[in-house]
Amino acid sequence: MKWAKSWYLSDVILIALIGIFFGAIFMGTNYVYDVLTAALAPVGLAGLANELLLGLWCMPGMLAGYLLRLKGSATLGELLAATVEMFFGGQWGISTLISGVLQGFGSELGYIATRYKHYDWLGLTASAITTTLVTFAWDLAKNGYFKLQFWLLVLYFIVRFISMFFFGGVLTKLITDLLDRSHVLKSTHNN
Amino acid sequence: MNPSIKLLLLLVIALEISFTMIISLNVALVVLAIIYLGLHGTKLKTLAWLLVVPLLPAIGLWSTQYINGSGDKTLMAWVLFTRIYAFVFTGATFTLTTNILQLADALEQNWHLPSKFAYGVLAAYNLVPKIQHEVKVIRAAGLMRGQQLSFWSPQLYFKAILVSINWSQNLAQAMASHGFVEDAPRTHYRHSAVHARDWIILGLGIIGMQIGVFVIPWH
């Protein structure tokens, strides 16, 4: 467990707190998902609600990876958010944990591909791409996407990437810019 | 049963039903989960609520396959419909009978998860009510200045992260001041053990799952 050595107790608490905070904020968005699903289900496009909002749900991982810059922070951040969501009775039961690990690891891959050096648009874009790919592969099986018609798969994939890029990329960048300007980030890893 | 072994078994089941298309297996898992929950004294109201929670996504998945699927649309639609119920009910056998403290103990003592992860996450988890309150405070504070903070506002997340940084340092210092030393060996007040019984249940569960998938013809 070499990677665990670089983590301090305060990092673990921080990443868990962020996961729970985001979870608490997301709970206020459930109505968006419910309304969209109900509206799109009659035409067989209910998955779009999931695709549109997935970037939001993957944000804790991407943000944690960007914020803490430690190996495993994206994976752990998303996993913790998912664990908390499962204990609070999310709509996906036990599969929440598997999705959480995969979403987190998907984000992590983007930072791995850029060698944990690019905490800028390049790293965030890479992370958005890898998260889209990994989560989509999982949904081919879990949500039966492999049985869908091809045009719908392409549509879902594009919408999912846009969502990832908007929430995981643009919004994360805006948030971290605010953090940079407030100079709180450096102090987080020196105690 | 040891929480970590139980979770492992449930994850194996979840992974396996994600890759199989047997409606009756999903239903069987839901029935088994309901029996298990019933034996553990889960209230009927809670069980009824579990039926309602995944209904909307389940209908969404069903209609997507039914309208825009390919091949045997009806089969796949019902597979996905029952699959999400299987996820939720098997998940509930864990979340309704085990708390996160027991899980953290098991992961730390039986699987050598570094204690800073186990206790760090617990420290944060116990702040959940305070966190929910704080989100309301942040929103209210925004409204007082005429700022509507919605879920796409960077400001909302920024403020949440500032609070998180603050609290995480306070908590870490509080724990250190009460004698918590990172990476130091610990003694335990609550003991968590993996018994032979746990391994047997895990083995039987996994074998039973394979019989359900490959041996029993479900039609």
Question: Could you list some keywords that capture this structure?
Answer:
heterodimer; A: 191 residues; mainly alpha; Arp2/3 complex 21 kDa subunit ARPC3; B: 219 residues; flat; transmembrane (chain B); transmembrane helix (chain B); Energy-coupling factor transporter transmembrane component T family protein (chain B); ABC/ECF_trnsptr_transmembrane (chain B)
Distance between the termini of chain B: 33 Å
Number of beta strands of chain B? 0
Cα-atom radius of gyration of chain A: 16 Å
Based on secondary structure, the structural category of chain B is mainly alpha
Largest interface: A-B, 73 and 79 residues
Keywords (chain A): Membrane, Transmembrane, Transmembrane helix
Protein name (chain A): ECF transporter S component
InterPro entries (chain A): ABC_thiamin-permease_prd (IPR017195)
Transmembrane segments (chain A): 12-33, 39-67, 79-101, 121-138, 150-171
Structure, described:
The complex is a heterodimer of chains A (191) and B (219). By secondary structure, chain A is mostly helical. Chain A has one domain: Arp2/3 complex 21 kDa subunit ARPC3 (Orthogonal Bundle). Chain A has 9 helices and no strands. The mean pLDDT of chain A is 89. Chain B has 219 residues and is mainly α. Chain B folds into 2 domains: 126 residues, no CATH class; 63 residues, no CATH class. In chain B, 74% of the residues lie in helices and 0% in strands. In chain B, helix 6 runs antiparallel to helix 7. The two termini of chain B are 33 Å apart. The mean pLDDT of chain B is 93. At the A-B interface, helix 2, helix 3, helix 4, helix 5 and helix 6 of A face helix 1, helix 4, helix 5, helix 7 and helix 8 of B. Chain A: It comes from Lactiplantibacillus dongliensis. Chain A: This is ECF transporter S component. Chain A: Keywords: Membrane, Transmembrane, Transmembrane helix.
